[in-house]
Write a structure and sequence with these properties.
Elements (H helix, E strand, L loop, with lengths): L7 H28 L5 E6 L3 H13 L4 E6 L2 H9 L5 E4 L6 E4 L5 H24 L11 E4 L11 H5 L1 H18 L3 H26 L7 H26 L2 H14 L16 H5 L3 H14 L6 H51 L3
Parallel strand pairs: 1-2, 1-3, 4-5
Antiparallel strand pairs: 3-4
Helix pairs in contact: 6-7, 6-8, 6-9, 6-11, 7-8, 8-9, 8-11, 8-12, 11-12
């Protein structure tokens, strides 16, 4: 039998609807880079003199919203803030010649901004000394020190940045495959945990042992990758257990079209329009990207928040799996009860025929 032709009105709706989907994807992936601006970079200014206070005020006035300045007394305090990611750079005025501290592990954009700041300070420093009669060739050069540099195996940090998206896709693939091919709450939970753990080991072997993208403890990196994958896949499996196939679509939208664009994997979360940068850190892609960067380059930084975020999404997925399992167990007996009288009619009738009057 030939399939009837699709109505022209439906053809138009499908074509236009599909184009809107393309527009949503383009908007989701281009919006962060288009709307992000360099602002609110945490910057420490060290020194216990009035000169340090004056420089801090000048930076805030001249740089506008580019920097969020915090005052400290010594260079050691400024370095500590950078290593714990409470500051992305610092201006040190403890000595006669200023020094600018950077951390290229925070990203290329931040390093470029701090290098421009060093050039601006150098120009101002030169003018001040020239006014005091110091010759231009005798003016000391401001030193730029990279306190937390990127590894030689990932000198531009592109490897660490690009790892975020495959982890999102990997989490989605695991959630979809387990949802469609595995039945039973305990079997689904076991499958998704095995997928996450195996994925963590494989990605760490590739990203750290092979390419040298990840740094630090391989065990912690493997756990972080596994948690990032598991947070997405477990959530999708849980949604599917409760909502059916619609759960796959909802989980994919939350992870790929919402969580990933605001994950700030390629730039500091402060650069995104408020409050999206901060919100992105509470989705698995953002928490996973931050966790891997901290474990690789900032071991002194607190990783409590990203660990808790990933654990919460995993726990939510497990709870949803349990809810879907309990609901299904409640529905099946009710369906059996409705079908039982109709099914019992035939045996009862045969017994009546076989029994002598």
């Amino acid at each position: 039998m030939n399939r009837p032709h699709t109505r022209w009105s439906r053809v138009l709706l499908i074509g236009l609807g599909a184009s809107l989907i393309v527009g949503v994807f383009v908007l989701a992936f281009s919006w962060p880079s288009i709307t992000s601006t360099v602002h609110s970079i945490p910057l420490a200014v060290s020194g216990d003199s009035t000169t340090a206070d004056t420089v801090a005020e000048q930076i805030e006035q001249n740089a506008g919203e580019q920097f969020d300045v915090v005052r400290v007394d010594t260079r050691a305090e400024a370095v500590d803030l950078i290593e714990t990611r409470d500051a992305y750079g610092a201006v040190v005025l403890d000595e006669s010649v200023p020094e600018v501290l950077t951390a290229s592990a925070n990203g290329v954009v931040v390093s470029q901004v701090l290098s421009q700041l060093a050039a601006t300070l150098q120009s101002s420093f030169t003018q001040q000394l020239a006014a005091q009669g110091v010759a231009a060739d005798a003016v000391p050069t401001i030193t730029v020190t990279d306190v937390v540099p990127l590894a030689d195996t990932d000198a531009r940090g592109t490897g660490l940045t690009t790892m975020s998206f495959p982890l999102v896709i990997g989490g989605m693939i695991g959630g979809v495959v387990v949802s469609l091919l595995v039945a039973g709450v305990w079997r689904r939970l076991t499958a998704v945990v095995l997928y996450g753990v195996a994925g963590g080991v494989v990605v760490t072997l590739i990203g750290q042992a092979w390419f040298g993208i990840l740094q630090g403890s391989p065990v912690l990196n493997a756990l972080a990758v596994a948690a990032s994958i598991l947070a997405i896949s477990a959530f999708i499996v849980g949604l599917t257990a409760v909502l059916g196939p619609r759960g796959i679509a909802i989980g994919a939208v939350l992870s790929l079209l919402i969580g990933n664009p605001i994950s700030s994997a390629a730039q500091p979360w402060q650069f995104l329009p408020e409050p999206w940068g901060a919100i992105g850190q509470f989705f698995p892609p953002g928490a996973g990207a931050t966790l891997l960067r901290d474990l690789s380059y900032f071991p002194s930084a607190s990783t409590l928040q990203p660990w808790l975020v990933l654990a919460s999404w995993i726990a939510l997925g497990v709870v949803l799996m349990a809810v879907g399992h309990a609901r299904n167990r409640a529905i099946l007996p009710a369906q059996d009860a409705l079908e039982e009288p109709a099914g019992a009619t035939a045996p009862e009738a045969s017994e009546a025929v076989a029994t002598p009057a």
